Amino acid sequence: MKRIILALVILSILIFQETQATDILVVDRDGSAWNPAFTDCWPRFMDALDANGLNYDYWEVAQQADNGPSFEVMQHYPVVIWFTGEVYSMQSTLTVEDEIQLSAYLNNGGKLFLSSQDYLYDRYPSGFGEDDFPRNYLGLLTVEYDVWVVNAPDLLNITGVSGTLAEGYDFFLEDIFSTATREGLYVDRITWSVSQAALEANGTSLTGPCAVQYDAGSYRAFFTTASFAAIQDASVRNNLILDIYQFLRYGGYEECYPYYSGFDHLNITQKLCQQDPCWIPYDFTPGSLIDPGITNLNPRSHPNSVVMVNGDHTIFYAYKYNGHHLLSCDLFIDPLFTGDIFIRQVGAIACRFDFSSATCTLHAGGTLITVPWVPSYWNNFQAWIDLGSDYYYLFFNEALIYEGQFSMQSNGSPGFKVLESFEIHATGGAPLYLDNFFLIPVQDCEQYEMFTAGEYICLQSPLWKTWDDVPGTSEDAYVSEDIAFHQSLKIEDQTNIYKAFSWESFTDGYHVLQMNIMVAPDHTAYLNLQKEVGIMGFYYGLEIFLEADGTGSLNAGGIASASFAYDQGEWQHLEIHIDLDADLCQVWLDGMLIHEYPWSTGNNGIPGPVKFGFLNIAAWNPAGYTTLAYVNEVCFSTYTGVGLPLMGETQPAVLLFPNPVKDCFFLEAPWDIQSYRVYNLNGQLIESGNSRSSRIELDASSWPAGVYLIRLFSQDQCLMGKMVRY
Question: What global pTM score does this model have?
Fold first, then answer.
């Protein structure tokens, strides 16, 4: 469905801002409105959008000197499609003001599809710099102009790059710009970028990237110098515009993040990349000779693992531009193995492990480090990568072997603050085995649907450990489906597990730990927070005891310092705020403050270190009672500097309207909502669901009158709000 918005009709803009509910704003700057010599590209875009049933509004720029839509207009659309046709000079493609408005749109979470063969030539004839729009928002570094020129009846072959939204595409461009002015297609070659090459042009003498996809975390963009309207086959246009829309709207590599695999579900008769699309062979041909195999012959594997032999070469792409991530895997390394393991930036190597002659050398930050490892045995490798602070830590068998600036290349040269991929290349000798590969967020809302129910959590997540380091035993906790709606951790009478939120203790900042907990009737539960990572059972910051009679108590700033009541058999929302800078801790239960105290006084009231280390959930079996409880949605957030949350309000509120509500209402977040939960004040889950939009509509007409708590989740964020039903 299309609605036309004229750039000069201010009244219509004001009206559509109030009423629009479409996903896409299409901006037409192909010049046909002011110069009939220019080809009208809009019909080909329109047909492709209509073929997919996509709802859009259409904005045609009427005069060359006019600007396109403002940020105030674009902010109402999750996706903007902007195309320019054959215009090529005097800011006909984008004006300076257009770039300013698009920058604001993308900075606020927008998604942009820009099809323009001459935008770069028009705006930056002498090249662009690091502060210009192409570098900052499209991820481009260097470009060669007009490398491929196509005049009718010639065609230009375009192919999609494996591992991108365009994988599998193979089509031709035709010259549709056949009027008198600037005839022909002029396709630029993108020679270097931090964004990912998505389309390649295959000329008679030269092949190279002509389009990129860019997932910057807070926004996404797809930019092509090969005009979309020039695609010869209408069915290709129909399919490709949908794939671009889905990438922009929902993300690219998000389906492989968070990621965990023990490879036990894979068939040993097929190759790794044939079965798991998150892994790509170096030659981009799943099932090829360099695609690693799956084996069950390693006697210490449980039961399957990936086997890397001479020539095998595989890559796990991540493309993370921000956030704090943990990459972890187990490696069984024969002393005769030769090969390399890489963590890559874009177009560069962040670090490289070189295995040769029974030794391992780490190349990182311009230094060479000999890495201790155990031959013919399983070794654990971990990389804690904080892109926000541009810093990372490397561990081998829990020993820190390197820390440094992530954007520095392995040879010490400046690189890029982008986690592109993890790569293994076996060059010869005996095999290497790979098992239990993770790439997961470190600070997020942990939901347990990604794990296998009926199996222990410490065998599936490197973030959780048992007290005595015996995963898979009675100390471990099962991922359980006992409670309806969502999987959770089952805490029983011998459980003793803990989770650290960083590899070392926090010494400053404002930290918020949240979780939902349900204690079974006539049973108990216990948890504590400790201050020092690596020092177990010594510096307690807080202890929480949940009794079998529905009462609870705290050791917080003193033994038995506070008591409270809770509902057994119901979900309770626990929220703990630790302000290390102010030396203050507050404990909240279902939105009610139950205690606050100086964090430094710990559980017993004796002054100690002002640090925060980890969460410990353990069995507590007082005489005549045993532990049985369930825990889910363990969320951890860290804040520094300005903008700290208020106690009891850890995130910006959900945009919720109308409120109060009688029947239907809308929820809106500044990012795409992956799931939502609605609770009443008794902690009962009233409704839940999944989404792929930043706005969702719910019907409350069947809910009893009262106050409801709303929680929205993205991949790594959580928002809360409160709604009144009358």
Answer: 0.56
